[in-house]
Design goal:
- By secondary structure, the chain is an alpha/beta fold.
- It has 8 helices and 9 strands.
- A hairpin with a 4-residue loop joins strand 4 and strand 5.
Length: about 250
């Protein structure tokens, strides 16, 4: 889905109607083409609400236009990285499209004066509010996570210390019941953010056991669905499959 003033198209409306018709409850939005002129992550989130796609979209990642603070003065810097708000790590892509991952510190002082972001980087001020909003939205549907948040110290950065192992189970449950709409972003053409999409499809979407009428036996015949074919310059052609039995 392309960020911009016109978020919806006829085909997208058709896909939404089909998802509702066939009871596809678990959904995930990928805001694509954030490297394009005029793309806006915040306006795209607002558009999800305006077009009534879901009453509670929750960003799982924030885009980083550039790791150079001075680049922001040029208005349209593109996209060079992402902050995974659930696993609390930052992804960086170099000019060759190769990603590296770095764990983020769990205190505001380390975030502001650490080595990952340069001093006064604009995205640093957005990280704590974004993670706080994510955790509070998920906790609305999880008593266990709510109790975890209530037991945290009163320090403003305490939400940064909550591990992904405490967040993913209630997030998955809320996704399966369509209580929340996970939102990811990036630039698929540059392979920025596509790995996160694959990771969270595996983390959050229902397995065959979640939707099958009967649990398949281990010795049942092999049944699988090939749902995506992609080219990787290191691994060649790859086929993504979902195994139902065998």
């Amino acid at each position: 889905m392309r960020p911009g003033k016109t978020l919806w198209s006829t085909s997208q409306n058709a896909h939404l109607r089909l998802a509702c018709r066939y009871g596809v409850r678990s959904r995930l939005i990928f805001l694509n083409k954030l490297d394009r002129v005029g793309a806006s992550f915040s306006q795209s989130i607002a558009s999800l609400l305006t077009n009534r796609l879901h009453p509670r979209p929750v960003p799982l990642a924030l885009p980083i236009a550039s790791f150079d603070t001075q680049t922001y003065a040029h208005a349209e810097p593109g996209i060079q990285g992402l902050v995974d708000l659930v696993k609390w790590e930052v992804w960086k892509w170099n000019k060759d499209g190769e990603p590296t991952r770095h764990a983020l510190p769990t205190t505001l002082e380390e975030l502001e004066h650490g080595s990952i972001f340069p001093p006064a980087h604009p995205v640093v001020a957005e990280l704590l509010p974004a993670r706080t909003s994510l955790l509070e939205n998920i906790s609305m549907f999880s008593e266990e996570l709510m109790e975890t948040l209530l037991s945290l110290p009163s320090d403003s950065s305490a939400y940064l210390t909550v591990p992904a192992s405490k967040i993913l189970p209630p997030l998955r449950a809320a996704t399966l019941h369509s209580d929340l709409l996970p939102v990811l972003c990036g630039s698929a053409f540059k392979h920025i953010g596509s790995e996160l999409v694959m990771d969270y499809i595996g983390e959050l979407f229902p397995s065959p056991i979640d939707v099958a009428e009967a649990t398949p036996k281990p010795n049942a015949p092999l049944r699988m669905l090939a749902w995506k074919v992609a080219w990787d310059k290191r691994k060649g052609w790859m086929t993504f499959v979902r195994v139902y039995s065998g």
